[in-house]
Amino acid sequence: LDPRRIQWGSAWNTFTSRVLRTKPVESMLDSAVSGTSSHGTKLARVLSTVDLVSLGVGSCVGTGMYVVSGLVAKEMAGPGVIVSFIIAAVASILSGVCYAEFGVRVPKTTGSAYTYSYVTVGECVAFFIGWNLILEYLIGTAAGASALSSMADSLANHSISNFMISHIGTLNGLGKGEQSYPDLLALLIALLVTAIVAFGVKNSVGFNNALNIINLIVWVFMMIAGLFFVNGENWDEGRFLPFGWSGVMQGAATCFYAFIGFDIIATTGEEAKSPNTSIPYAITASLITCLTAYVSVSNFNL
């Protein structure tokens, strides 16, 4: 333990070699060729490019189309919400191109950014990215379930929240000082989605396709109904950007959240039939589809 006897150079090299050591991609590819993942479990290659696009669209289109667009239009960007979504989409597409490049370089591994950083950068960076991914999916799932619960409560004339408050009670310290209630409906929604995912990727993709069809029907309905409420004055000079470009950029930062979810396509490398071509096409196509949906719907939130 004498500091004078410690070879600091060799100790530092040993430390950095352990922290920055990477996982050989050949070992992952060998396990994939043999039909098993790195944990010894076999994953079925059942996902086509269309399935991956549907998976990406289903992961992105949701609260962004029904909640975020109206929120940004009302409080941040006004009619300029269209520009906010375009800016956010450009940033998302650039990020998606990076994911597509990773998917081509390491096509037969799961783990998304965790695996890619483990292969290219090192174990230490992969450790932090892995926990950040857990945090991202945790917050994303909670936000989506909470939004669905809030919509159901609004459709039920707030009878669900009133029942929770009167029979269970309220929680202090949540939100902006107001009282909140235990959202058991959101918990049930999260558990239901978890159970569906646990049945396997083929079943979960089928359920996701059904939800996408419902989203498509609602999207078309909103487009047709919104045509009767078009107001050209919102596009006049001075009204298109009521909050200025600062509001547009603030809205773009919020709109970027609506595009989170496309990275789930990159985690299906071992379940896609042709990952080298399917993953890049699916990421790009899903982001363009989501951009079209958000821009078209945001026109009628003004």
UniProtKB/TrEMBL annotation:
Membrane topology of the entry: Multi-pass membrane protein
Membrane-spanning segments: 52-73, 79-102, 114-134, 184-201, 213-231, 243-266, 278-297
InterPro entries named among the record's database cross-references: AA/rel_permease1
Localization in the cell: Membrane
Pfam family, one: AA_permease_2
Gene3D superfamilies referenced in this protein's UniProt entry, alphabetically: Amino acid/polyamine transporter I
Main location: membrane
Keywords from the named record: Membrane, Transmembrane, Transmembrane helix
Name of the protein in its database record: Cationic amino acid transporter
Organism of derivation: Xenoophorus captivus
Lineage of producing organism: Eukaryota, Metazoa, Chordata, Craniata, Vertebrata
